[in-house]
């Protein structure tokens, strides 16, 4: 175990292609598909032979364990409190796929959410050496825990659906991320678009708004269309690829997964300091009207 830890520390600091990538999945507004995407991305990556860890950061009401149809007895709190190691706290979901569940206990009583999140980021950095990718499913909005974890991540996927409220909240969250660290790698992902034209319209609008107000639009990861098969998959607690092999959404998820290959994501060489920095940078209220 000690040997593995030392090995990770060495590789994570460089641009080693084998260093685990830490990927955050966030949104301003709730119910836009973060958890469903996290689970299905993880499932497709695991099917492709990647070793994947999902982390449920939605501490109060996480539901990755429901989507993955597993108990998730231990989780984030046990790891952060120092009661269990990462290897002991994870729940195996299937070959190559583990879950660090939210398990409903909240952050340890003596810790604020941002301290808990910083501790979690530290534990992940030092113990995830056995995985290729870590996908962190965030709670909605600009919580302190979310900002701390985002600042420690190699890439942040910002989910929006084609609704004004979702776009406005995503702008507010993006602004907060830039305030925390302007060099963060953020990429927009549009979910539940009715057509490619609609997705492209949102992409252009979001790019123009963020360019005008913050001087820096996020990258673009692509889009997923509205697909009843995803709702069906959730209802049967199965990955999309098992619930409906024919749906084109599987290829769309694979295209997003391909963009998370090590060659497409730089390890943040400065990420060692970012969790502490973010704690001192308490999220302020921010939206596009300021
Ligand atoms: N592309 C999609 N097409 C159809 N339904 C979707 C799609 N993405 C998400 N959903 C539905 O939205 C619901 C909420 O998604 P969820 O991942 O729980 O949101 P969040 O984690 O952002 O709060 C899912 O249970 C699913 O039924
Ligand atoms: Mg969720």
Q: Which molecules are bound besides the chains?
A: adenosine-5'-diphosphate, magnesium ion
Mean pLDDT: 89
CATH superfamily: P-loop containing nucleotide triphosphate hydrolases
Q: Residue ranges: pLDDT <50 for 5 or more in a row? A: 1-14, 274-290
Report the biggest beta sheet as strand number plus sense, adding barrel if it closes: 8 strands, mixed
Number of strands: 8
Structural class: alpha/beta
Total helical segments:
13
The secondary-structure element order is HEHEHHHEEHEHEHEHEHHHH
Total domain units: 1
- Label the overall shape: globular
What is the first-to-last residue Cα distance? 49 Å
CATH class: Alpha Beta
Helicity level, as a percent range?
40-55%
Q: Strand share of the residues? A: 15-25%
CATH topology: Rossmann fold
Lateral arrangement of strands in the main beta sheet: 3-4-2-5-1-6-7-8
* CATH architecture classification name: 3-Layer(aba) Sandwich
Radius of gyration: 18 Å
What do you see in this structure?
The chain has 290 residues and is α/β, with parallel strands linked by helices. It has one domain (22-279): Rossmann fold (3-Layer(aba) Sandwich). 44% of the residues lie in helices and 16% in strands. It is built from 13 helices and eight strands. It has helices at residues 2-12, 34-47, 64-67, 76-80, 86-89, 113-127, 144-151, 164-180, 196-214, 228-235, 240-243, 249-258, 271-279; strands at residues 21-26, 52-56, 91-94, 97-100, 133-137, 155-160, 186-193, 219-225. It has an eight-stranded mixed beta sheet with strand order 3-4-2-5-1-6-7-8, sandwiched between helices. β7, α9 (196-214) and β8 form a beta-alpha-beta unit. The chain is globular and about 50 Å long. The model is unreliable at 1-14 and 274-290 (pLDDT under 50).
């Amino acid at each position: 175990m000690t040997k593995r830890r030392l090995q990770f520390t060495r590789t994570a600091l460089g641009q080693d292609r084998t260093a685990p990538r830490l990927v955050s999945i966030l949104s301003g507004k709730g119910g836009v598909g973060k958890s469903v995407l996290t689970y299905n991305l993880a499932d497709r990556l695991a099917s492709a032979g990647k070793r994947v860890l999902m982390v449920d950061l939605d501490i109060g009401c996480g539901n990755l364990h429901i989507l993955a149809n597993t108990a998730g007895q231990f989780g984030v709190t046990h790891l952060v409190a120092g009661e269990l190691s990462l290897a002991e706290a994870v729940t195996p979901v299937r070959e190559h796929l583990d879950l660090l569940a939210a398990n409903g206990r909240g952050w340890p009583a003596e810790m604020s959410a941002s301290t808990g999140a910083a501790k979690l980021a530290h534990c992940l950095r030092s113990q995830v050496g056995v995985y290729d990718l870590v996908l962190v499913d965030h709670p909605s909005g600009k919580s302190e825990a979310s900002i701390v974890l985002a600042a420690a991540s190699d890439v942040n996927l910002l989910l929006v659906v084609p609704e004004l409220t979702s776009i406005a909240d995503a702008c507010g969250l993006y602004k907060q991320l830039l305030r925390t660290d302007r060099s963060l790698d953020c990429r927009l992902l549009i979910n539940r678009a009715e057509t490619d034209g609609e997705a492209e319209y949102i992409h252009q609008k979001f790019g123009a708004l963020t360019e005008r107000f913050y001087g820096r639009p996020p990258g673009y990861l692509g889009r997923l269309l509205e697909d009843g098969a995803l709702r069906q998959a959730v209802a049967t607690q199965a990955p999309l690829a098992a619930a409906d092999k024919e749906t084109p959404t599987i290829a769309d998820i694979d295209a997003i997964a391909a963009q998370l290959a090590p060659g497409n994501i730089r390890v943040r060489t400065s990420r060692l300091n970012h969790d502490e920095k973010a704690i001192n940078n308490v999220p302020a209220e921010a939206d596009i009207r300021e």
